[in-house]
Design brief:
alpha+beta; twelve-stranded antiparallel β-sheet; 285 residues; 7 helices
């Protein structure tokens, strides 16, 4: 399978029983499951209990324990409410008999109403930036061995930072960054699949933005870095196999935690989704 086909297979959960699903993790050599995978799989589980006429409009999740990539993850869906306009689901991801992730998600059908959005930042186009291969080569010089092996193999996402030097944390700088991102191959036209892929990629690079202002990166051996929670609001239907700009900023880092926000735009400047995340950023003894 291609990397994108492998990702789609990872997001295609096995049905165990009503409201009960099982997902597996790809073998990439990491010690813990990528947070975006758990978010996306939990969303897929919730979506399968909701009519397609009500797409997800928001999700809020907490990472409770590191996921074990060698063990399947069981997702249990609680059908909290099916209202006249909104549907609410709660999903718990379980491994070794313990919850590793908990998420609430809300679903709402399209309605007519007021509409506005903030403008997309003006940045260079993805064709004018270093390719994904050049980005991977730069990452490999700084990353620990398991991450380096991951970046040296084909990946399901094409990432192109607007400023590669800022992403690598060479010098302290303004806590903002802009990254073009898309799936590295075709994604089926089903809207729910594109929303799951968007949730998957939304966990990419966020904590880097809280570190760049300090001249550090997630690969810094002197730091313990991990996502603590993740919130996402879906404004419009994404097409994740087309270029999207991920505009990120970090308003605050304190108390060994970093807070980051993100806005995902399509290439025409339409705001697709908003993201917020707080992560552990703890100096190692």
């Amino acid at each position: 399978m291609s990397p994108v086909e492998a990702l789609l297979s990872t997001l295609d959960l096995e049905v165990l029983e009503q409201n009960l699903y099982r997902g597996v993790s790809p073998t990439v050599g990491w010690q813990r499951v990528f947070g975006g995978q758990v978010i996306a799989q939990a969303l897929v589980a919730a979506q399968r209990t909701v009519d397609a006429s009500r797409p997800v409009h928001s999700l809020h999740g907490y990472f409770l324990l590191p996921g074990d990539p060698k063990v399947p993850i069981v997702y249990e869906v609680d059908r909290i409410r099916d209202g006249g306009s909104f549907t609410t689901r709660r999903v718990v991801a379980i491994q070794h008999g313990r919850a590793i992730f908990a998420m609430s998600a809300s679903f709402h059908g399209d309605e007519e109403g007021l509409s506005h959005q903030i403008d997309m930042p003006q940045v260079p186009q993805p064709e004018d930036l270093p390719s994904d291969a050049e980005f991977a080569a730069a990452i490999a010089r700084f990353a620990p061995e398991p991450v380096k092996r991951y970046w040296q193999r084909p990946r399901p996402l094409d990432l192109r930072p607007v400023d590669l030097g800022r992403y690598l944390g060479r010098t302290p700088s303004d806590p903002r960054q802009y990254i073009w991102v898309r799936a590295a191959g075709p994604v089926p036209a089903e809207p729910a699949i594109h929303r799951a892929v968007l949730a998957y990629l939304s966990d990419m690079t966020l904590l880097d933005t809280a570190l760049v202002v300090h001249g550090r990166s997630v690969f810094d051996p002197g730091l313990q870095v991990a996502s603590l929670d993740h919130a996402m609001w879906f404004h419009r239907q994404p097409m994740t196999d087309e270029w999207m700009l991920y505009a990120q900023d970090s308003p605050s880092t304190s108390g060994a935690r970093g807070f980051t926000r993100g806005s995902l735009y399509d290439r025409s400047g339409i705001l697709l989704a908003s993201v917020a995340q707080e992560g552990l950023i703890r100096p190692r003894a």
